[in-house]
Amino acid sequence: MNGYAVTIRALLVLLSFVTFHWSALAGQWTDETGRSVQLDNPPQRIVSLVPSVTETLFALGAQSRIVGVTDYCDYPAEARQKNQIGAYADPNLEAIVAARPDLVFASAEMNRPAFVERIERMGIAVYVINPRSLDEVVAMVRSIAHLIDEPSAGRALADAMQERIDAVQARAQERTHPKTLFTIMTSPLIVAGPGTLSDDLLRMAGGVNVVEAGPSRYPGWGVEGLLAVDPAVIVATPHTQDGSDKALEYFARWPQLQAVQQGRLVSIHSDLVHRAGPRLVDGLEALHDALHPREEE
What we know:
The protein folds into two domains: 27-130, 3-Layer(aba) Sandwich (Rossmann fold), CATH 3.40.50.1980; 176-291, Rossmann fold, CATH 3.40.50. The chain contains 13 helices and eleven strands. It has helices at residues 3-15, 22-25, 51-59, 93-98, 113-121, 134-147, 151-173, 197-205, 223-229, 241-252, 258-261, 270-274, 280-291; strands at residues 29-30, 36-37, 46-48, 66-69, 103-107, 125-129, 179-186, 189-191, 208-209, 233-236, 265-267. Strands 7, 8, 9, 10 and 11 form a five-stranded mixed β-sheet that branches. It has a four-stranded parallel β-sheet with strand order 4-3-5-6, sandwiched between helices. Helix 6 (134-147) runs antiparallel to helix 7 (151-173) and helix 8 (197-205) crosses helix 13 (280-291). The radius of gyration is 20 Å and the shape is globular.
């Protein structure tokens, strides 16, 4: 990450704690990638290309303003009833324009800059999110709330999240810190390295990431790498119960792993640890409890 990006992230986190009247910032918004976003009035018609943002908008009580979501925007259940504008990885530009939004939320991880530019050329404002830590997720909640002119709801939601985060960190400080492998998928085996949201969750929950820094934040691993690090805990993050069973069966093929021998294969639903929204705190709590099962009072 370059110095400019670090400065932008630090500034956004700082500004998230400052309360402004909406009109004081009208037309002067900066998104999480440092882009300038022109928005002269609070948005009333919002398209969300990001499942975590959709969840956040519902949590802020702004669901009536949502006029478009992706096929992955499935929480809460009411989100499924919203107008579908295409796949998460491949949203439909025509459907977005047809929804007549005054603001589109996009993701730096999933939506290419060229696609964002195409939306902007249609005269539609686009705000890009890019949180890579839990602190940045809380700051994102505050920023979204200010952007849609719901600062009180945003402050209440973000404060509640932060209180639970602080409680987990306080408990984690008193626990042992097991060497942990945080996996993204098992076929092929993809793991979370430093500089990822998963790594930040693991650290806050009281674990030590066995994946070292390298060219990719989400490297692919072979069996040799897995056996070499021999983690004390292995965390699988499937989308379904069937996926959970298969992930645990995958690692059970190597009984020499200490995580297998000691029954420390853990499964946490991917939405709780990969979606950068309010439920991420649920994932943090579940991860902490999984890392320290015998130490809980």
